[in-house]
Amino acid sequence: MVKSATRPLTLEEFLKLPETKPASEYINGQIIQKPMPQGKHSKLQSKLVTAINEVVEIEKIAFAFTELRCTFGGRSIVPDVAVFAWERIPLDERGDVANVFEASPDWTIEILSPDQRQTKVTGNILHCLKHGTKLGWLLDPDERSVLVYPPKQQPELLQAEQEILPVPDLVSNLQLTVGQLFGWLKL
């Protein structure tokens, strides 16, 4: 049996498709579904968003979103945590937070799941940095490590519990060590 070649989907066509659970991303003309978040991923994600928003939301400095679709630079990705400076958060006609974000986050955080490929996640972080993101983190709960991606610099691997994690200037009042971050996995 001969299969006929199907043409690749465009970004615009992808964006018209219904959302999936877990979310699908559009990367280099391909649709790639993210793995279903598991316990460690979920705990780190919720604690990080809470910790970040506690220091930036009241003063309207920034806001951390979970699983927010960000479409820019020919990709549509869904970082585990996307932090946007307050003035960059798009609003709808009523002044509410918009549903569509067509920009890179100021800070992107990805949490590696057991069955997730590190190269794909790193590719998304690098794409964000190329399009204006000020910092990227890749958390590996199993290794208890954080790969920090500053723009136009070599990534830094942090594993020692006492190491303070670098944050972008907009959340400079957030101080968190590797030990505190992965300590959130304990009940």
From TrEMBL:
<dbReference type="InterPro" id="IPR012296">
    <property type="entry name" value="Nuclease_put_TT1808"/>
</dbReference>
<dbReference type="GO" id="GO:0004519">
    <property type="term" value="F:endonuclease activity"/>
</dbReference>
<feature type="domain" description="Putative restriction endonuclease">
    <location>
        <begin position="11"/>
        <end position="178"/>
    </location>
</feature>
<keyword id="KW-0255">Endonuclease</keyword>
<keyword id="KW-0378">Hydrolase</keyword>
<dbReference type="Pfam" id="PF05685">
    <property type="entry name" value="Uma2"/>
</dbReference>
<dbReference type="InterPro" id="IPR011335">
    <property type="entry name" value="Restrct_endonuc-II-like"/>
</dbReference>
<protein>
    <submittedName>
        <fullName>Uma2 family endonuclease</fullName>
    </submittedName>
</protein>
<dbReference type="InterPro" id="IPR008538">
    <property type="entry name" value="Uma2"/>
</dbReference>
<keyword id="KW-0540">Nuclease</keyword>
